[in-house]
Amino acid sequence: MAQEAPSHWSVGKCSPFARLDCDRLGVRYAGRSGLGDCGTVLADRPVPRQCAAFYFEITVGRGGPHTRASIGLVGAAHDLCRQPGTVSRTSAGMRDTSVGGAARAIASQAGLAWRGVDGLLFRADDDGSNAGSDFGARFGPGDTVGCGLLVAERRAFFTKNGALTGDLQPVPPMGADVFAACSLHAPGDFAKACFSGPFQFDLASFVEARRRLAVARLATRRPTASKTARALPGTSRRFGRVGGALERGTGRYCLH
Question: Which residues cross the membrane (predicted)?
Fold first, then answer.
């Protein structure tokens, strides 16, 4: 059965330092900007596993004099009082002490996020490490930023005001369910999400470009495979079936 795509923020996956509007698309910060009081909220549903591409946007509101908004993707057990892309080893998700349990818990807390105030990219890997690196672009009040996931490639991408920003980013292991996330951490912070479009970013054109690139890469491998097939009888037909399946697979994108 096909999974439904996210449509709004989740009341049950909302930090006590965040307040959702009635439409569950707008979110407002309700903390004091202290350590451990981020206002993080996750989408109502995980990214559909059958989709090849998922994308959402947030528009940052004009609230206080400073804004500390972040956008990204996280695992199901992310600590909602922490910024996406960071994990805490002392959070509830780390209580599984069975063999392999800690690794599973960290993976489900893992995430990737872009923070607007300083343009840093935060990546919480499956070993529990938190790393912030220079992503370049900053964003703030009045900007619309987006985050997407190419599911088959396991790569994330970010946009700002309709344009692709930075390079595609490998995503850390996040467990079975991956959620869209937004975090606010300054008085007056406000953001409004869009999960179903229309988007500022031309998602369809981007997806088509990735599809063409995948097909082109597949085509460049075929001559080598054909030579191998002549040396190994019976491999040509098998390669053709696999290649055709890959080409067909690149076209199965769910545009949300």
Answer: none
Does 195 lie in the same domain as 139?
Answer: yes
First to last CA, the chain: 18
Please give the backbone phi and psi of residue 211, each rounded to the nearest 5 degrees, phi first.
-65, -45
CATH of the domain at 127: 2.60.120.920
* Domain region containing 45: 9-201
Sign of CA pseudo-dihedral 213, 214, 215, 218: positive
At residue 140, what are phi and psi to the nearest 5 degrees?
A: -160, -155
CA dihedral 200→157→59→174, nearest 10 degrees, is 140
Find out whether 137 and 117 touch, Cβ atoms under 8 Å: no
Q: Rounded CA gap, 64 and 75, in Å?
A: 30
Q: Are 16 and 76 part of one and the same domain?
A: yes
**pLDDT per position as a tens digit, 165-216:** 999 999 998 988 999 999 999 999 999 999 999 999 999 999 999 999 989 9
| Domains contained in the chain, number | 2
Q: Establish if 2 belongs to a structural domain.
A: no
Q: What is the DSSP string of 181-196?
A: EEEE-STT-EEEEESS
Q: Which two tokens stand for residue 201?
A: 């970013």
Is 3 among the domain residues? no
